[in-house]
Amino acid sequence: MPGIHIPGIPHTYLQGVRIMPYSEPTDLAVVACPGGESFANEVITHLRHMYKHRFSLKSDVIAKRYGIEKEKVVQQMNLDNDVHTSDLCIRGNIEKYRPPVFKVNASFTYFANGEFKCELNECIRGKDVYIFQDVENHEEILMNGGKAKLKLSVNDHVMGLLVTIDAVRQAGARQITLVVPAYPYSRQHKKKSREGLTAALLGHIYESMEVKRIITLDLHSREIVNAFAHTHCENLHASYQIIRELAKAVDLTKEDLVVVSPDTGAIDRNKFYATGLKKPLAMIYKERDYSVVTQDAKNTNIKSVKLLGDVQGKVAFLADDMLGTGGTLLKAMEFLHNNGATKVIAAISLPFFTGNAIEQFDEAYKKGLFYRIIGTNAVYHEDLLKREWYISTNVSGLFANVITRLHHNQSLGDLLDNRSIIDKLIKASTPAGGNEQ
Questions:
Q1: Structure confidence at residue 209 (pLDDT)
Q2: Average pLDDT of the chain?
Q3: CA distances from 316 to 35, 67, 91, 140, 283 (A)
Q4: Cα(26)–Cα(199) distance, rounded to whole angstroms?
Q5: Rounded Cα–Cα distance for residues 347 and 313 (Å)
Q6: Are strands 372-376 and 343-351 parallel, antiparallel or unpaired?
Q7: What angle, rounded to 10 degrees, do the helices at 419-429 and 267-277 form?
Q8: Which of 11, 78, 344, 399 is nearest to 234 (CA)?
Q9: Fewer CB within a 10 Å sphere, N or C end of the chain?
Q10: What is the CATH number of domain 239-394?
Q11: How much is the pTM?
Q12: How far apart are CA 275 and CA 99, in angstroms?
């Protein structure tokens, strides 16, 4: 099909605009499950800013390169989008940037017997759909058109996600991507006796429902990825965002900081931080009684704790992927405090804080057992944001970047391996001449 021509604009330019990916992404859609709506809205805010910035940047470059007035370039972009949209035209001023609408209007019903229903109120046929769900959101959620307020369990959220996937598939989506920062049942990834591999089971279910890709945050175990035969799993890391907040909480150039792995399972993660921060690495070794089931923050199966390394007179920094009842972390922080650490700071990618964990951490903070907890906004938790000891770091921009790159078939390399930008952040936090002694 020949391009539409406006006098004064070269035909070669028109051919380039036809594939311009930042103007009107009519086939990118976001469906937010009730639990994931808060995080989806934050990601969408970033998507809007990103598309507007890229549109402005692209129009500036094209106008300068071809010696065309920017107003004509913008008008041509909008004209080309109007020609190629499935609608009669796209709403908005043809002489200005017209922001895309990402979020799909959807209704979610929770029936008295516990069943879910998802209904899409607009067409998504042929679209690249991203379904958001936060399975660890235990705040009150509006359902049934705002008529009901419910606190949903992980199982409720998982079932709601499955129902939504089916609705999106039945509505003719071109491809489906799940955005689940907290992968459900990720701790059930290996067998100790006669038990199931529930993390893999859910993976098989997603795959059978034609889910093409899953975007998650700091997956508890790499073994889960092996459950997929065709579905791709993009495992993101919040290390850059966490180090950015750590640099605000303590002076990395002056404080004597040591990275401490809270257990053997977290050694790789903390080795990454130690390498990035160029700090020494220590480790806490725990002996557990696996015949005992952890009940809450105080009643755990940990019998004894030993330290491999030195924290005397230093700031101790620990990093882990998730925090449930918090008992393991509380014991580790108390142990480091008793071993002479001046400050104890912990970073958690997925801060669940289940049960009475927040109250237990309040008590520990009053005793001076730790200084700060850094967590991400990937898990919605209103109470945490009110705590003096809690620092929330925003990862919605990271997810927005990944979504746009996947949608436009671009590389994720520098987003999945963020060592280079962490190195830049560390150098930026070092004052000029800081290495001179």
A1: 96
A2: 88
A3: 34, 57, 55, 36, 11
A4: 34
A5: 20
A6: parallel
A7: 50
A8: 399
A9: C
A10: 3.40.50.2020
A11: 0.88
A12: 41
Q: What is the 3-state secondary structure (H, E, C) of the chain?
A: CCCCCCCCCCHHHHHHHHCCCCCCCCCEEEEECHHHHHHHHHHHHHHHHHHHHHHHHHHHHHHHHHCCCHHHHHHHHHHHHHHHCCCCCCCCCCCCCCCCCCECCEEEEECCCCCEEEEECCCCCCCEEEEECCCCCCCEEEECCCCEEEECCHHHHHHHHHHHHHHHHHCCCCEEEEECCCCCCCCCCCCCCCCCCHHHHHHHHHHHCCEEEEEEECCCCHHHHHHCCCCEEEEECCHHHHHHHHHHHCCCCCCCEEEEECCHHHHHHHHHHHHHHCCCEEEEEEEECCCCCCCCCCCCCEEEEEEECCCCCCEEEEEEEEECCCHHHHHHHHHHHHCCCCEEEEEEEEECCCCCHHHHHHHHHHCCCCCEEEEECCCCCCCHHHCCCEEEECCHHHHHHHHHHHHCCCCCHHHHCCHHHHHHHHHHHCCCCCCCC
CA 207 to chain centre: 21
pLDDT tens-digit profile of 370-409? 999 999 999 999 999 999 999 999 999 999 999 999 999 9
**Equal CATH topology for 1-236+395-437 and 239-394:** yes
Nearest CA among 41, 43, 30, 35 for reference residue 160? 35
d(CA 177, CA 30): 10
Q: At 18, which amino acid appears?
A: R
Architecture in CATH of 1-236+395-437: 3-Layer(aba) Sandwich (3.40)
Lowest mean pLDDT among 1-5, 257-261, 388-392: 1-5
Average pLDDT over residues 40-51: 95
CB 283 within 8 A of CB 289: no
- What are the residue ranges spanned by the domains of the chain? 1-236+395-437, 239-394
